[in-house]
Structures are given as C-alpha cells and as structure tokens.
Design brief:
Length: 389
C-alpha cells in the first residue's frame, strides 16, 4: 500500500525528521488559505498522486504570491497528471500540498529498500539526487552507494556516517544526517514499511545550512496492515484500481492484466498455473481473481461480476481445485451468477477436489451452457479456442 507525499512527510515529521512547513488543500480557495496560514513569501504547490516524476510533468510549481498559489492549485486540481510513472492515462489530482519553498543548495537521493538478495533493509544513497536519479543509476552507477542494515543490530551511527561521507555530507551536516537516517529507519521498522524514498534530501537555507526532506515516498507491507491502524487510515482508494478495491471488500484478490480471458481460481499457485497454461496455448489472461478458500456461492457471484466489469473479457475460465472449498458451492455460485448477471460470454469450468461429483451434477442439471473441462490444460485450451472464435 502506498501513501501520498504529504502523508509521508507528516509521518516523518512525527519522527523528528525535518520537512517543510505545509498543509493539504482540496480546492483552490483552501490552497490560498493554507499558504496564508503557513506564511513565508515563496510556496510550492505540489499535486498529490501516488506517482513520482511530477516535477517534470508540471505537478510541482514554485510561486511567490498567494494569488499564484490559488491559480496554480486551481489549474492542478481535477486534471489528469501524466508522469513517466503513471502510464498514459495519468492520475486525477484530487488534492494539492502547499509548502514553504526552500533555498536549495544541493539535492541528494536517500532510499531505504528491502534488498531481496540479502533480505535486509538497505540504504541506497547518491550525491546526484533530484529529478534525474534514474539516469544517474543507468549512466554512472558508481555514484550510488549502498549500506546493508543488520536487522538484529539495527542501523548504527558509523554506517550513517559512512553513507553521509560517501555522498559528500560533512561538518555540521554530519550529525543531522545520522539522526535523520536513524529516524527514517525507526519509522520504517515501526510501521512495517517496505520502502522509504527521499528524493530529494536537500541542503537548504542561507547561511545556516540544514538538511531537509523535500519529497518522500513510502510503501507498506499489505500483510502487516492488520496491525497498522494509523497506516491503513492513510489509504487513498481513489489511487487504486476500483475493481481491486471492490474485490478486497468482498475478501477476494483481483489483479488486472491486459488480455481477454477472465480467470476465477482458488489460490495464488493455481492462479499462476492457470495464467501459464493460457499463455502456453497462445492466449492472454485479462486478470486473475482468487476466491480463496471457503468461497460461498455469493462470493463466486461477486467474483463473476467483478471480472465482467472489464469490457475486454471475452470468456471466463473458472479453475477450482477444492480443498477447503466445495465444488457444489462453486457450481451454485456460477449458476446464481449466470441468472443474476445475464452473463453473455462463455464460461469454461474445471472443477476438481471436494464434492466434485456433486458440483458437476449441479452444472449439468442447470440447463445452462457451461463448457466443462477435464483438467487445467484442457480448460486453458478451450478458453483460448473460445476467444479465437
Ligand atoms: P517529483 O519527484 O514527483 O518530481 P518532488 O517533490 O521531488 O517531485 O519535486 C521536484 C523538484 O521540485 C525537487 O527536485 C526540487 O528541486 C523541487 N522542490 C520540491 N519541493 C520543494 C520545496 N519545498 N522548495 C523548493 N523546491 C522544491
Ligand atoms: Mg522527488
């Protein structure tokens, strides 16, 4: 799960990390009000979407009057902002964050990620921060430094000093850098974050130099949300695929893909196998929807409805290997779905496991035209044949 930049900044602030003074606004008048309240003579208006690359796409603007704050907020709110991270359809800007503009002397990159190889939180830092970090990583990878954190010991001062020195921080900035890195690490651990990306971390000020976080991106472990109430409350459903949100509300897992065969399965392993089998037969899955264990007829009906919300779906492949599930319930759910949703696309059904005979019998006696399949391979082949016409 991701959060907005302003939420990340508020979170970091609560851990004592220096961030600009700011406020969130949902309208242009509110934006002007926020600018008035926070004071200063230069502000940054920042579109809040769950994607970076906003600076280059016109989603971050520095202005020097309250009237300009209002005008800029008005121009941003409600538009589709397309950045190199959003995909061509962009994201709708629902709110903006107004903060005091800083005098930037230098921008750095500071990321905390989980390194899959070492299975540890790793700091990634660079003296070349700001909007070109992707190019730095490609063209001059030696300008990126890494420091692996031992989970049993935690992040030690000398490691922070090593990273800070490597990116060129020294003197009065050194203790600030150590404190900042340790606070971010503590925040990450406390909140079950998977990633904390600060870009830029900047030296700001005139005369009295200070380190400040000017942009922050956080993502969290979905499997830990049950124990992270404050994090869960920051979730912005408008930023997520509406079908995935609806599915999770019904206790289903929906993942959108770009083909035309809808897949209703139970279990992530069977989902992967189904996608592979479809691909092997030359087809392309439109999604996969995992009904999980113990799927009631209602759950199966909801699954069909969600899959059919994708207009690209030309047929539905139902592949169930029932253990905790019951094939008779799945069959009842499918009949219920056919009757209540008036499904016009072919349904290919492969049932195996608990109560399979009963399930097959229910389908056969329903009078509805299901295409039944013997096994996974047969089901995938039939689905691909159906969409090819
Ligand atoms: P994104 O990463 O989505 O492009 P950022 O928040 O990093 O958005 O902003 C882009 C650039 O705008 C930064 O690299 C920085 O140069 C500038 N910027 C951002 N916030 C401020 C601020 N508070 N004061 C001055 N400049 C800022
Ligand atoms: Mg940034």
């Amino acid at each position: 799960m991701n959060i907005h930049e302003y939420q990340a900044k508020e979170l970091l602030k609560s851990y004592g990390v220096p961030v600009p003074v700011g406020g969130v606004a949902y309208s242009d008048q509110q934006a002007a009000q926020v600018a008035e309240e926070i004071g200063g003579n230069k502000w940054v208006v920042k579109a809040q979407i769950h994607a970076g690359g906003r600076g280059k796409a016109g989603g971050v603007k520095v202005v020097d009057s309250i009237a300009e704050v209002q005008k800029t907020a008005d121009a941003m709110i409600g538009t589709h902002l397309v950045t190199h991270q959003t995909g061509p359809e962009g994201s709708i800007v629902q709110r903006v964050w107004i903060e005091q503009a800083s005098d930037i002397k230098k921008e750095f990159y500071l990321g905390f990620v989980i390194d899959r190889g070492s299975q540890r939180i790793t700091i990634i830092a660079s003296s070349e921060g700001g909007m070109e970090i992707e190019e730095v990583a490609k063209a001059t990878p030696e300008k990126i430094v890494k420091e692996v954190i031992d989970p049993a010991i935690g992040l030690l001062d000398f490691q922070c000093r090593k990273v800070a020195t490597a990116i060129g921080l020294k003197g009065k900035l050194m203790p600030q850098a150590v404190k900042l890195m340790k606070s971010i690490y503590r925040c990450m651990r406390d909140k079950d974050a998977l990633q904390a990306e600060i870009n830029p971390l900047a030296i700001v000020g005139n005369g009295d130099d200070k380190l400040m976080v000017l942009d922050a991106k956080f993502s969290f472990d979905d499997n830990a949300l049950y124990r992270q109430k404050a994090v869960t409350e920051m979730r912005d459903l408008a930023e997520e695929d509406p079908k995935e949100v609806e599915a999770s509300g019904h206790g289903l897992n929906y993942i959108a893909l770009d083909g035309n065969i809808g897949c209703i399965v139970n279990g992530a392993g069977l989902a992967m196998a189904s996608l592979d089998a479809i691909t092997l037969h030359g087809g392309r899955p439109a999604n996969f929807l995992d009904v999980g264990g113990g799927a009631s007829p209602e759950k199966v009906t909801n699954a069909c409805r969600i899959v059919l919300e994708d207009p690209n779906v030309k047929c539905i492949l139902v592949n169930i290997f029932a253990g905790i599930n019951r094939c008779d319930w799945i069959a009842k759910g499918l009949i219920q779905a056919c009757n209540s949703l008036q499904i016009k696309v072919p349904l290919i059904v492969r049932l195996a496991g608990t109560n399979v005979e009963e399930g097959r019998k229910i389908l056969a006696e329903s009078g509805l035209s299901f295409i039944t399949a013997e096994n996974l391979d047969d089901a995938a082949a039939k689905a691909v044949k159906t969409v090819r016409g």
